[in-house]
Hints:
EC number: 5.1.3.13
Helix content: under 10%
Low-confidence stretches: none
Protein name: dTDP-4-dehydrorhamnose 3,5-epimerase
Strand content: over 45%
Structural class: mainly beta
Catalytic activity: dTDP-4-dehydro-6-deoxy-alpha-D-glucose = dTDP-4-dehydro-beta-L-rhamnose
CATH architecture: Sandwich
Shape: globular
Pfam family, one: dTDP_sugar_isom
Enzyme class: isomerase
Distance between the termini: 18 Å
Strand order of the largest sheet: 1-9-6-11-4
Order of helices and strands: EEEEEEEEEEEEH
Mean pLDDT: 94
Number of helices: 1
CATH topology: Jelly Rolls
Number of strands: 12
Amino acid sequence: MNSPKIxxxxxxxxxxxxxxLGSVRHGIKSTDPGFSGFEEVYFSSVFFGKTKGWKRHTRxxxxxxxxxxxxxxxxxxxxxxxxxxxxxxxxxxxxxxxRRLTVPPGIWTAFRGNTQGENVLCNVANLMHDxxxxxxxxxxxxxxxxxLEKE
Length: 151
């Protein structure tokens, strides 16, 4: 597992326990790094070859877990007080190789579906959805175009 390049991003391996009738997959525990309480859990899907984004939360911490398919996450640090300001990272997570991606406030995020059909993620968020709490830019915003072309 590669270490994230952006300060405060956490990538955690998750247990996958196979069973005769199906598997058990860990998501998050209150003692895990990156856990900051939760007020809402929601699911988002993205179709094969499609990319959703860009979004930057101002207060929310997201704990992202891919539960179906495979998703590539594109991350850009625009926090002016960060040691990794203006750096980007690309992290690929699949349901078959479970990991949790913890994204702090201030990181621009987009994600792309890599397998046929719907690719589904779960977000364990420390805040309830508030449209005033985040910023959104078009996926084709010129300042972020280069990172999408890398994958």
